Structure formats: structure tokens, C-alpha cells
């Protein structure tokens, strides 16, 4: 069973295949359509099956010499998954395509020339676009990497994107030592929570910025419980009280931006001279504006998709992250578990504002 979509944005209508006959949309489907297909998209862009139809039963190809049969165990819904469906993600698969870029699976059959994997292994996708919102898949051996089986299922399912992104950003751009500090927005996101925990394990302080909300205190307490040093509202970045904070905490060498717009600009204002701001997302859908006072800061971008080609480095990173999980220093974000048949409900929940729970499809 797979969750599949067909998108034809940017293709001349005459080149499009005939769409299938679709039944009238119910309220839930209409909401998903309005969220996933904004008005500025071409009128001939369609998302079929994924929004409007049922799960599809498809025939699996034969397992080749260098292939493996994978049973998908669990797969989350991430913002990048939604962006890929919308056609706004940097990497887009051939269509029609199966949704999902992250998840954990188990090897059920191996080809005769497969060497790096064995029956029963847990695996993660190496790159985006594998399509994890399905029950089974036949994939090439080099499309996946094995993973330790002694960690919780939800930790495994949510390991390949957010914790890896956090690990690399904390490791690759500044030489951070115990006592140094990092500032980040979107601190309650999957990446943000992983940054908090990995930084805490290294003795690095974190200044965590989140949007104001009715349950701010509860969320702040939850982030501090996993290792956050400071949790502040976005509005506080522009207030004189920030000077008081930096009397007890060094100015950050590293800023991590997952929002963009004014939020990113404010992070730059508080960055240490010569520090780096790394942008890994743009939830506000607004450009990053660099203030004149930040002339001596490095403004960079990062995508985990460009890193995973280095298998040896990928393995080292996974081993360290699994070690943190075993020690209880890295946990999965709060998750809502739903069956694959409830994918529409999960998508609706993932699209809601101020969502702290990650939607995970359990196969």
C-alpha cells in the first residue's frame, strides 16, 4: 500500500496525462487541497490519489541482484515532505511518486550480490525522495544504510532528517567548545529539539526562540527539561532585556535559522563578532535580510541532502546519535502515531499552526 501523488506544475497542459475520474471532495479533502495547493500554483497542477483517492495497492518489482525488499515500520511527516508535494523543495522525484523522505524499515529479502545489508537489519534512507509512506518497497542496496536495532522505534523513524541536520550544523560551521552558546529560532521544531539535546551533551548552551502562544510556559518547561538553557519569545529578541541575558551567557558563535524573515534578522543582531548564521529552513516564506551591523558575520545555508553522499561520515554520525539515544541524552520529539490508512488525518494535523507533535505513520 502506498500514498502517492501526481503533480504537473510547470508542464504544458497538452503534455499532461489524463487525470483519473475523481469523486467529490469531502470537507477534510477540501482543506488539504487548499493548504497544499496555494492559489499561485498553475491551474493545471494536480495532486491525485494523495489528496483525493484511496491508498493504492501496487505490484512490487522483482528483487534484483543489488536490491533489497524493505518492510517500512514507521515514517514521519516532515515540512520537507509537504514542500516536495507542493513542488517547492530543492529535490523533486519523478512522478507519480510516493510521499515521505524519512522513516525506518526492515530488510525482508536481499539480492544475491548485496554485501552491506542482511536479513532483519533496520535501515534508513540515505537521501530524500525514497518514498517512505508505504508498507513495502524494493530499493537498491546503496539507497539505504543499516541502523542499530536497540533503539526505540520512534527514535529510529525520526533520526534520519532532524537529528542529523542538528548534528551537522553543530559540528561543521563553528568550533564550539563547552561553555559556548548557540541561538536558534523554531526551537520547538524537530531540528530545534535535537539541537538542544546534542548541544547539552557537549556542554554547549542554547538560547531558544519560539513564537508566543497560550501554552508558552508549558512548552518552555518542556524544552528546558530536555536541556534548553534559555527559552524566549520572538518579541524578546528586540527588547533591552537581551543585554541582561548576555551577562550570564556568552554571545552566540552560531545562529541556526529555520524561519527566515525578521526572525532571522534578529538572530544576526545578537551573533558574536565573526560568528555564523546557518539557514536550514524558511517556514515564514520570507527572505533573510542581513542588517548592516552584521557585516562581519557569515551567512550560510545547509541541507542534509547534500551531505549524506559521504557514507563513512554518515555512519560515524549515526553511531554517535545512537549512542546518545542509548544514554537517554537524545529522545524522539513528541509524536502522534497513526496508521497509514489515516494519512489524511495525519497531514491535516501536520499542517496546523503551533503544532508540537510530529505525525508518524505506523505501518
Please give the radius of gyration in angstroms.
21 Å
User: What's the name of the CATH homologous superfamily of the largest domain?
Assistant: NAD(P)-binding Rossmann-like Domain
- Number of domain units: 2
Cα separation of the termini: 10 Å
What is the helix tally?
10
What's the SSE pattern? Answer: EHEHEEEEEHHEHEHEHEHEEHEHE
SS-derived structural category = alpha/beta
Beta-strand percent range: 15-25%
Q: What general form does the structure show?
A: globular
The largest pleated sheet is described as:
7 strands, mixed
Overall average residue pLDDT: 83
Low-confidence residue ranges: 7-25, 37-53
CATH fold description of the largest domain: Rossmann fold
Record field, number of beta strands? 15
Assembly form of the protein: single chain
CATH architecture annotation name of the largest domain: 3-Layer(aba) Sandwich
CATH class designation of the largest domain: Alpha Beta
Residue share in helix:
25-40%
Features:
single chain; 363 residues; alpha/beta; Quinone Oxidoreductase, Chain A, domain 1; Rossmann fold; 2 domains; seven-stranded mixed β-sheet; six-stranded parallel β-sheet
Q: Would you kindly provide a written description of the structure presented here, covering whatever features stand out?
A:
There is one protein chain. With 363 residues, this protein is of the alpha/beta class. It has 2 domains: 52-152 and 332-362, Alpha-Beta Complex (Quinone Oxidoreductase, Chain A, domain 1), CATH 3.90.180; 163-306, NAD(P)-binding Rossmann-like Domain (Rossmann fold). The chain is built from 10 helices and 15 strands. The strands form 3 sheets. Strands 2, 4, 5, 6, 7, 14 and 15 form a 7-stranded mixed sheet that branches. Helix 1 (27-36) packs across helix 10. The longest helix is centred in the C-terminal third of the chain and has 16 residues, at 311-326. InterPro entries: ADH-like_C (IPR013149), ADH-like_N (IPR013154), ER (IPR020843), GroES-like_sf (IPR011032), Mito_Enoyl-ACP_Reductase (IPR051034), NAD(P)-bd_dom_sf (IPR036291).
Amino acid at each position: 500500500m502506498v500514498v502517492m501523488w501526481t503533480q504537473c506544475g510547470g508542464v504544458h497542459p497538452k503534455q499532461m496525462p489524463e487525470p483519473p475520474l475523481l469523486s467529490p471532495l469531502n470537507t477534510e479533502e477540501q482543506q488539504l487541497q487548499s493548504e497544499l495547493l496555494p492559489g499561485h500554483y498553475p491551474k493545471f497542477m494536480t495532486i491525485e490519489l494523495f489528496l483525493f483517492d484511496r491508498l493504492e495497492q501496487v505490484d512490487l518489482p522483482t528483487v534484483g541482484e543489488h536490491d533489497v525488499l524493505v518492510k517500512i515500520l514507521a515514517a514521519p511527516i516532515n515540512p520537507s515532505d509537504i514542500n516536495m508535494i507542493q513542488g517547492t523543495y530543492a529535490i523533486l522525484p519523478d512522478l507519480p511518486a510516493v510521499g515521505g523522505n524519512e522513516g525506518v524499515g526492515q530488510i525482508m529479502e536481499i539480492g544475491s550480490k548485496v554485501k552491506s545489508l542482511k536479513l532483519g537489519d533496520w535501515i534508513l534512507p540515505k537521501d530524500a525522495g525514497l518514498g517512505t509512506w508505504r508498507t513495502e518497497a524494493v530499493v537498491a542496496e546503496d539507497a539505504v544504510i543499516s541502523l542499530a536495532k536497540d533503539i526505540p522505534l520512534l527514535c529510529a523513524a525520526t533520526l534520519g532528517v532532524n537529528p542529523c541536520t542538528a548534528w551537522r550544523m553543530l559540528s561543521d560551521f563553528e568550533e564550539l567548545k563547552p561553555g559556548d552558546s548557540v541561538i536558534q529560532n523554531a526551537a520547538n521544531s524537530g531540528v530545534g529539539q535535537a539541537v538542544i539535546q546534542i548541544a547539552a551533551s557537549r556542554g554547549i548552551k542554547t538560547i531558544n526562540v519560539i513564537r508566543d502562544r497560550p501554552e508558552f510556559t508549558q512548552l518552555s518547561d518542556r524544552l528546558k527539561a530536555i536541556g534548553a538553557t534559555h527559552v524566549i519569545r520572538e518579541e524578546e529578541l528586540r527588547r533591552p532585556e537581551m543585554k541582561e541575558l548576555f551577562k550570564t551567557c556568552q554571545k552566540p558563535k552560531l545562529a541556526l535559522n529555520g524561519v527566515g524573515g525578521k526572525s532571522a534578522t534578529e538572530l544576526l543582531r545578537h551573533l558574536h563578532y565573526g560568528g555564523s548564521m546557518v539557514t536550514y529552513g524558511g517556514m515564514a516564506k520570507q527572505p533573510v535580510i542581513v542588517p548592516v551591523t552584521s557585516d562581519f558575520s557569515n551567512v550560510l545555508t545547509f541541507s542534509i541532502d547534500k551531505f549524506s553522499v559521504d557514507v563513512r561520515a554518515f555512519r560515524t554520525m549515526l553511531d554517535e546519535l545512537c549512542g546518545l539515544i542509548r544514554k537517554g541524552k537524545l529522545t524522539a520529539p513528541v509524536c502522534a502515531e497513526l496508521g497509514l490508512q489515516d494519512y489524511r488525518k495525519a497531514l491535516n494535523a501536520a499542517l496546523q499552526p503551533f503544532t508540537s507533535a510530529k505525525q508518524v505513520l505506523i505501518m
